[in-house]
Fold this protein.
Amino acid sequence: MGYQRINIIGGWIAFLISLVVYSITVEPTASFWDCGEFIATAYKLEVPHPPGAPFFLLIGRLFSMIAGDDVTQIAYWVNMLSVLSSAFTILFLFWTITHLAKRILKPKKGEETTGELIAIIGSGAVGALAFTFSDSFWFSAVEAEVYAMSSFFTAFVFWAILKWETLEDESLRTRWLLLIAYMMGLSIGVHLLNLVTIPAMALIVYFNYNDSPTKKGIITTLVIAGAVILIVMIGVIPGLASVAGGFEIFFVNNIGLPFGSGVIVFGLLFVGSLVYGIFYSIKKQKLILNTVLLGFTFIMIGYTSYAIVLIRSNYDTPIDENNPEDIMTYVSYLKREQYGNRPLFKGQYYTAELTDQKKGDPIYMKGESKYEIKDYKVDYIYDPKHTTIFPRMYSKSPDGNHQRIYQQITGLKPGQKPSFADNIQYLFVRQLGHMYYRYFMWNFSGRASDIQDADWVGLNDAFKKLPPELANNAGRNVYYMLPLLLGIIGILFQYKFDPKYFAVTVLLFFLTGIALVVYLNAPPVEPRERDYIYAGSYYAFAIWIGFAVLALYKGIGQLTKEKKLSAAIAAILCMGVPVLMASENWDDHDRSNRYFSIEAAKNYLDSCAPNAILFTGGDNDTFPLWYAQEVEGHRTDVRVIVLSYFNTDWYIEQMTRQAYQSEALPFGLSLENYQQGGLNDYLPVIEDQNIKGAINAKLYLNLIKREHPGLRVPTAVSAYNRVPAKSMFVNVDQSQFSELNILPTETDELSQHLTDKLVWRITGSGLEKKDLAIIDLIVNTEWKRPIYFNTTSINSINFDLRQHVVQEGLTYRLMPIKNPGGGGYLINNEVMYDNLMNNFHWKELNNPSVYYSEDYRSFCTNHRSAFNALAQSLINAGEIEKAKNVLLKCLEVMPDASIPYDIFNVQQISLLLEVGERDLALDIAEKAGTRAEEWLGFVLDEGGSTAGRNGLQQRLLTLNEIVRAFRAAGETELAAQYEQVFRQYYGRS
């Protein structure tokens, strides 16, 4: 059997290994974060967040069809798209490594020795399997996100350019270049990461046509490659649509033609010019021009997947983010304008004050017969003394957290202007260090835990004695730096024996890693770890890991003439590294039987009464709910409203339409009142001295609707309406509630808190559009539609409703009640008891063999908190037996074996003592107290780690809570025992 056949079989074996591993460990439903959104929008071809991923959604839709009529299997099959994409990535990585390895060993074609064969195939296997079992790539391989498919395109085009160089027939070479261009075009419909491979591929083309490369030639090649990236990223993706938008404005507004005429004219001119150019190049025999134009054409063919965005948006799908249904909104969608811009080449420091605002380009909207200007973009002018080139320290968060991190890293004092040296220090310490190097070392040295901001593990940390809570953390993966060592060996080996392609690999590694960090210019805090973004650089490093086999083969070959033996020894020794990575990473990458992301989503929906309105805040309390409704059809009567989107006119307009069983929302204000760029984007509080106390919200809305000039406040760019008082109220007509049957009975404790007026105070300096829309709904639903908030949303609005809400599960219902107390929420014991005990979903949550990562564990704490609140309320109401049942249910569905005890379980100690479950209380105290003591000992006695220090206060709180519980229950000996431990560590913290 010849090399070619063995190489093909070896690649497919690597493919099968990865396919089996990922299929076994794939998540059976929608994961947290964007996965729920992507599965829902793939299943029904809806419009996800900008800039979309239309090709991913189209293929995801095909995979969803495999589920047939079983909607619970749709998520699994869309997840399998990532599994298959990742397995194909490994296939092409294997063939990439063997191709480059063969370049180094230079065996004669068809005359490869057995030793050379083993070394080459071994290098491919070691490198490919090391990447298979790497932390970040495995993470993306088992969930429905775009990064697995993006990695496939990266692997394919890089392998394809290597395949190209083996061809001698120029016509065949041209066809492969066109295939690469087409795949590049398709990849745009998944993610733009694939484009950064262009310079590396350009170098390969240059080296193939130049036996003696020059610095000038290399620089010219890289400049051209960079220009190609810019042309695609700026000129093609948003650029063509922007030009089409200009044509549309001219033909509709200036000439008076119908909507769409400008786009049609531009399309005809563009396609006609392209066709003419191709025919011209053929006629004049201009081969390079012909190849370039055909390549551009194939990129455009691949890019046409984006047409699905416009098509589906015009069908007004339930998920229709940004509503990109005409060329103007489509351009905004492609440019991701809703997310704003990060300064790259020049911009402000975080200390810069805003000195001026200037009116920018107009923003158009579709009118009755022409496009109308609805707003202008705003150009912000900052104090020039606090601006710089290449700004890194630019972000200013409302809570001051970003500023504090800048100051911690640089030693700056509050308000002190950073120097350029501080700027660069932040780049190296935070952006390149914490946000890239740490991730890189996770993959090739080891990871301390799955806790946010976990450090990497070096040799010293690998052998350090840890508290069991950290040592047994499934996310702790220790590789003893062996993958890193192999990679370094491979780097040195390729540099020595193939410097040309070493430059190619380095460039690929740099562009998909460090260059990406610089381009993204991330703020100091992200909502979650972003290691998966840089998988391309880990891919390049895996090539070097494979080359370590060749290096050892050469080295051992110096000691023995048995080439087969030296190759076998090298391959076997190096193969131990991916085996080690697989064994370490399996437990925290096995997502089988994990359902709680969607179970929790259903619990949020089931906390709501029929036909309810539910306000949510972040990704994790929204996207899983979308999935549950859109895919599994669960509680489609509940209207889920994302607060961050509620600041936009397009989203409010969508809320005026029926969605499944949810009726349109009854806004009192018109869509014109909510129009972007109008008077109500932001409403500052400017108190009127003639107004004493709160204003009537209903009357205020009437003034807004009439655009009363007395509310108007001019600014440098436009004008805004104001709020003339700090407080508002809504009168409550309790007589109407008897018909609606929503008030508590006279025997219910809640009946004591009924009120005839809802009063709230504005907590900030003004109201945002979302706040105005919520007030509009409070006034105009007239209590006929239940209004609910989750924890995130109730704390995200700019006025305080907390004294007027009642907890009925995981959500808080707005009711005509007033909580006289300052702490906690009022609870509807009957409804909440039924929800927690009978209606909520807990599939596999009590299974200790299922891995629950930190984001899942945090959602469990939300549920435990709800159990505690209900139990305390029942105890206060004298319903001890019910309270006992609630606590036992909590411990049954979320036992310590699957979801380790946290602070909310510690708070259950006093509750358990009150309901007579002393043994359970002692068990929680013993386990939680021991873990806290071990953790504190590790941090304060052993020096600990960053993750350990971050948990220090929480462990002290645990011990203090145990002391408080036992002391309140009269258990003085136990209280003294735990107090002694607490005082031992508290004084040293």
Summary: The chain has a mean pLDDT of 92. The longest strand covers residues 354-366.
